[in-house]
Amino acid sequence: MLLIAVVAVLSLIVVQVLVLAGAKELIYPHLSWKDIAQKAVLAILAQFFAYIPLAIFMVALVEGKYHVRFWPAIRWNWPRSQWKMLGLGALVLLSLNLLGHFLPMPQSTPFEELFSRPRDAYLMSVFAITLGPLMEELFFRGFLYPVLARRMGVAGGIFFTALPFGLIHMFQYGYAWGVVLLIFLMGVVCTAVRAATGSVASSFLVHVGYNATEMLLFAIATDGFRHMDKAATVLF
Question: What pTM, to 2 d.p., does this model score?
Answer without folding.
Answer: 0.90
